[in-house]
Predict the structure.
Amino acid sequence: MSIKKSYLIELDHETKNTKRILDRIPDEKLDWRPHEKSMSLGELAAHVVELHNWVSKAIPKEVFDFKVDYQPLKVSSVAELKRVLSDGVEANKVAIESLSDEDWFKDWVLKSGDYEISRLPRAGAIRFIINNHIVHHRGQLTVYLRLLDIAVPGLYGPSADEKWPF
C-alpha cells in the first residue's frame, strides 16, 4: 500500500468520525463552555473542522506560518460546520494525491513569525500536527457532549450510549 493510499483511508475514517460528532451538536449549545478558560462548543467544533482542512491548506506548503497562513474558522451553525468539512474533503484528497512519495519525506515547518514551532517530514506532520490533533480535540468534544447529556457516538468502538452488536 502506498503512503498516499494509507492517508486517504485515514482521511476518510476520521472525516466520518467528525461528522458523527457534528450530527449530535445542537445549534443552541454552540456558545456553551464547561469552564471560563475552555473554548465554547462551537469554537472547539470549528477548530476540529479547520484541522481537517489543514491537509489541503498546510501540508502542501513547505512552511505554514500562523501569522501569515492561519485565520481561525468562525461559524454560526452546525450546518455551516458540516458544509465546511464536506467541502474540504475533495481538496484534501487532491492535496494528498498531488504529493509525490518523495515529498512525504521532505521537511515541513510549522512556525509563528520568526519562531519555529516544529520541523518534521510531511508524513509526520500529517499524523502528528493534524490527525493526532483532530483526535485530541474531538475527544474533548465527546466530553462536552457527555457534560451536556447528549449521547456520545462510538468512534473507535462502542460508547456507553451506543452499544454495538458484538
